Protein 1
Amino acid sequence: MTLPFRPAGFMALLLTTLCLGVAHAEDPLPHLQRQGDATQLVVHGAPFLVRGGELGNSSASSMAWMEPAWPKLADMHMNTVLAPVYWELLEPEEGEFDFTLVDELLAEARDQDMKLVLLWFGAWKNSMSAYVPAWVKTDPGRFPRALDADGVPQEILTVFSEENLRADRAAFVRLMDHLRRVDSRDHTVIMVQVENEIGMLPTARDHHPAANAAWTGAVPADLLAALAERADAGALVPEMAAWWEERGAPDAGSWEAVFGPGSRSEELFMAWYYARWVQELVVAGRDAWDLPMFVNAALNRPGREPGSGYPSAGPLPHLMDVWKAGAPDLDFLAPDFYTPRFRHWSDLYTRQGDPLFVPEHRFDDTAAAKALFAFGHYEAIGFAPFSIETGGEAERALLAGAFDLVRQLEPLVTAHQGRDAIDGVLLDHELREETRQFGDWTFHFRHDHTLGWSPGSDAPEWPAASVIVVRTGEDDFVIAGTGVVVTFSRANGQAGILTAQEGRFDDGKWRPGRTLNGDQTHQGRHIRIPVGQWDLQRFSLYRY
């Protein structure tokens, strides 16, 4: 039968198809790009700063439970939710997948104008295999467990099992393929975390028979070649460089022969095999849907032994070279923060030129200041407190203040990233002062409570304070944050404040407020944002 030709309908369909084609061409997948010496996440064709929050472990298992949480997230000026995808719920029966929960999460995030970073709770979550499906848990013959030094099985899938890898990889690929089919237009999901806080417990290495055989076998030649190449280029992290030199840069042998006896070598051994597992998932997952992928780490504590004192072999700074050799297609390694040493660990994760992304930070009264510091000093991709939906009112208010500033500054910050024009400071009772250089201007930052007349300056503990500074011209600057006083100097001549103005950015356009002088600038001697305020100011300096 010949169907009637309807020009109007045909043209409408043709135009729609052409428009969709243009939209897809102009709106590539979320991806990473370099701008100067910074790494940017690009979403919908533009650099994107993740003002994030990670949900509690079980929150994303029920959209009904999540319903009252969404307004809280919006009130904190978040643009991204980090949410788990649970293997046990995704594949309740082998080969039978249920994407209902994933689709509901995608729909709700779109309704809330939020992006998603999905966390794959697959083979391991916080070292353990608690999120694997029941059909995996109840068949240890087919899906073997890791063993401790006494041969006791752990609630941890052994990494030395092809069947374990096959099952985890197959589920992960199905997830990524589903995202390709249902999210290719909206790009709601902007990154994926592969597993969660991988690491071996309670011993430094797995003692499964297959693990023992690998331990006594030869160190893979590709690992030794990668370490040798990085050593020759002076690119090893200092811990690995010292270790490599101590062992005489060996080119063959068993793990113990090459790296020596003890838990240090056992941790390196496990790191390689964990990284190889992740590489398998990354490559297979990207074949289905090519999104940026990363892994996160439970940080080790000083003086603790791997396995017994912290999860051994995760993507930790001293093991970065091994992880990069084993998982070269992984985009970056990320730290989870439940330690006060924020600068220390952030320095370690960025010392090889890698980007900083904080997928998990304790939701405490320091998180907001550290978020601003991360975007300023480290030009971070993003920052996300943990259990974002259950934080206290005070913590939520602080984060709302910081994220609102980042939201306003995003076009300015992303335009200047990687160009030696952005920095930030983080101050508290212990670290009261910092100095930064912007061209020939020296900025001297002090905590607001160093001013004896500042309310609360006599308190035993001072709240965390931080600012981000963007240099917009030779003598022109934007500063945003809380609790900081800034004075200025230069090598030749005197430095003065020419003008200062408070205000805000709306869609990248400056909306001025008060012009500041007198008491607000201490008669032209400093720029100040008091404790308890989250403010934006523009100012210019001059020489005299």
Protein 2
Amino acid sequence: MKTTALLLIGLLALQGVSADYLSAWDMDEGIRTRQNGYYNHFKHGDSTADVQLTREARRGPGGRAMQVVYNKPMDGYCGVWAHFFDEEQAKDGVLTCLDVAGYPYLSFFVRGAKGGENFTIQLADPAWYAREDSQAAGTAVRYLGRPLTTNWTEIIVPLEDFRLASTDICGITFNFTEEGAGTVYIDDIGFKKLPDTPVPFSTATPENATPDRAINRAMWVWETEPLLDDPQEAADLFAFCRAHQVNELFLQLLYTYENDGSPDVRCIIRKPDLLRAFLRAAHEDGLRIHALDGHPEYVLRENHPKVLAQVDALLAFNEGDIAQEQLDGIHLDNEPYLLPGFESVLQEDILRQYLELNAAIMARLREQGSAMVFGVDIPFWFDERPGECLVTWNGQRKDAAKHILDIVDNIGIMDYRNFAGGADGMIKHAEQELAYAAQVNTPVYLGVETYQDTPLPFYFVCMIPEAEWAAFARDHADLMNRRDFRGFRMKTYRDGTLRYWGIGQDRPGAPSDRFLTAVAALAALNPTDWQEVDWRPALEQALRIDPACVGFQPLNISLGGEHPINGFTTAMRMPPKTTFAGKSKQALEAALKETADHYRDNPAFHGFAIHYYKTYRELPDE
């Protein structure tokens, strides 16, 4: 009865103030403001901010509110911004901001999780937006006249306090500049003609709109042997799956090759009897099991026979009469972009070979009438980088993600962000793939990461001007099509004008003699004299803003050769925003819930895949 009354009040209020209240963002649907603008968190220095749209702490009976969890130590600042213009038009140079002429008061509602929280309120007009900044009016406490409480309270700020040159408002920023940590909730941002103009409650559905259909949850498992050898290890895995709603496993296949390198290569599955016993127990526990494997080099045509031999071995393994002892699918985590040649003129050819492999696997499974489904993992950016990852295949030219969705039974998008919403979150990065997947009826898992690597120094000793990079890559195609050089991981790095090529140490600490010998061999391929190019300013600037790089040290080492080896070192890591490592299972669940809520009506949204069992298990509960 009380809920019905509140909804009625909200509807009446909405009808009575439509001309006096201009809503900018009520947070009720999607991940954009009413003007089709994005929002996102920001942080500087040691400060952090995590933002999500939640139904758990909203204003009124329906809709959502924005939750901001902030930690502002002495250093830095953090917060959240939202744009009040159409992002798609802005890409074409058209910036049409929200015109608030006649609405001289900013209004929004706020409450604290504990009370006493505070932040600065900032707006941007076109001039401020062009400077990538916004103008402050004051703090929430200033306009409330008291500290925040745990009750929803409206804050009203006269626009004249922002001292803007225009009534076109491009965006709003809530900036946490005072030392402290906490959580605030914000809802119903808009502009009013008069301070006492009422703001309607949301008319969105009051229920927690989680999907009615089943949401699958898969998990990568790389350490297979202990699970086959020790029944208790398997029992612990099954118990973990039950506790965390996991119903599918991508299980690393144990195998060896016979006649490797010849056309008659054969794949032999190791410990087949133990694998059958594991499958029987897993199926009894309600789990579906997909054989997992992957290497970047496997995408190359010369290695396709090895992968197809693996498929043949799996088909033979599944020929038994006992369904409970059969595999449910094949899942390949080949990552072609880890080959140095992917970041070169060789990219399209690598992608075409990748598509050929996937199509050949699907053809093999269909020829044999197999019930196994075939899926692959792809990065979210296969369809996001303008002008890149395009490939002509079967007479059609489109991005790699669409081609793959046309070919396979399912995909896992490595949607590696540790937050759901915003301009750089899980929801945004999966939009285009899920839209196309719905057209072609291909199920999609959204993958999240729980692993954090150890930063390892990379020694970059080859420098190539961008204008010469294509020719250099062609001349060294044999090396570009390998992930490793003499057993060490290769990487390329670019700063806009120069391309750098190097290898990384295999372990922390001082470099081994074997590693330094490999560095010297790679340096022998360097076409450019480091002493004759002013390379440091642009490179140091690029490294400074790159979250994947830690530190910089110029190289000038002698290994007994005629000339010293020049270049630089930097430690490389996974950017922190790509993984839930360091966060809690609760934070992971909140992001999955927000994402599932958003995609509840997309028929291609199949569920989530979590990478991976060992590190997922190690996340703290809170």
Protein 3
Amino acid sequence: MEGSVNSTAKPSVMLTKLYFRLLPIQILIAVVGSINGIVSTLFASNYVGAEAMSAVGLYGPINLFIGAVSTLLFGGSQLLAGEYMGKSQVRHTQNAFTLDLILSTAFGLVISLLLVLAGLANGARLFTKNEAVGGILNQYLLGQAIGVLPMVLGQQLSAFLSLEHQNKRTTVASIVFIIVNLILNYVFVYLLKMSAFGLSLASSLGMWVFFLVQFQHYLSGKSSLKISPKGVHWNDTGKIVRIGLPTALNTGYQAVRGVIVNAVIVKYVGELGLSAFSAANTMLGFAWAIPGAMLAVSRMLMSISVGEEDRQSLRDEIKIMFTRCIPLMTVICAAIILLSGTLAGFYFQDRASDVYQMTKAGFMILPLCMPLSIISMHFTCYGQLSGKDILIHVANAFDGFISVSFFTWLLTPAIGIKGVYVANVINGIVTLIIFVGYSVLKNKRFPKNTDDLLVVPASFGVPENERMDLTVTKLDEVVKVAEEVHQFCLDRGIDEKRAYLAGLSMEEMAGNIIEHGYTKDKKQHSVDVRVIHKDDEMILRLKDDCVPFDPKERSEIVDPEDITKNIGIRMIYRLASDIKYQNILGLNVLMIKV
């Protein structure tokens, strides 16, 4: 038989397949904002002028603040919803979704109003004394105000559509946004000469299209998650804020850091240094979308694993990060470094100019941060879920603000704009040292394995000898696996009746999946079976990657011409103490308690 007791290879295979099925769409979602920035800066530098590039750079901290709050909302609510899904608490999942949209709408409207007031009242004077740059920034603020609400809501919907396995809709929305943004920039900036207002208006209208394409799913009545403001439980607001706050604060720290770093650049390098830094950061936003997407996938998987108290899946998720994600990102970073001159040339054609050389240096040094950031982001994600609030706040303070600001201030007077770039790399090393140091402090030794690195509490999940993992790939393996489940129960003192029911449940449900699910397409499938003994209760979890199917629907079908049809499933539903089904991230998850 393929698969054995406590085998971890097969579950890792299914998880890896799921991870890299989800990753492309998450990259596309993350890339949307980066492409928006690239398009805007290219049109700004080529058709508006260097002052427009400075204005885009000065708006960066504002955009980071908006992103920080949006991240707090969708990060906290998605992690909370994933945890509820792992616990099979459907009503709480719906509440987290609805509450997130209410809070996001309120935030988006407030920020839009503030940007309008700032644009009309010359709010740009708070960011620059250059009147030419300030005038352009005021126009830019007015255009951006139109797109804040759909941008924030679009980010929330993207997160939840992934949980509903509606990645195609988000893909379509993302592609349509890119096309609309490009066309409108050409019309507003190149043809109509609308300057900075045209730049921001193009992306704002594109964001409305992005949001509406996604929102249509929730108007169709076909969505699993429903928007139900009536009876919403506001007490989940605190949980959303607590879970999402560390990541949001990190983005907020970056907004403050952006103001400080911009000031240091202007003082020691000049306006051209700011243009170079803005150009390199904007183009690299495309590459940064990949670590961000990796985190987005891991965030969903980790939240569900924490809800299920699934220690092995947590290990597998970190293993994927180390063995697949970091090598992939290293290759991408090497390619960026090799193409640094070409990338700088997109913005500044004169290769002898100082601004070109400074931009090229950014493409050569800044990518070195990315592999390090993948590790720290994953540790941060687990820390949020496991309540390690002090650790995460300390790490985020250093990562988002203290390290970069300090080393920028220390190095830039001596080595110019390269000091800013090097400071970001040193920051990645400092953040990693903080997480490893925490592990050493808690375990009183250097970490030996994933559990040590994450500092997973001993009380999480069940002991190894109280859990059995099996993988079924063929119908003729089902009976053998059922016998192993039966024996596993007897070995743990479960009475014969419940042990027999556990084995029968496994046999009937796994057989049903193979018989009906494997034949729906030509793909290779497997069923991951986990049996847990906890508090004198046996819990069976069957997880498969076949087409979505709720066995309860089959249990309610009685054929008058063949009363024995589906009798096995109907019997399991009568005898089991609890059965819950969910389709999570495209996987069928069936939980049976006996």
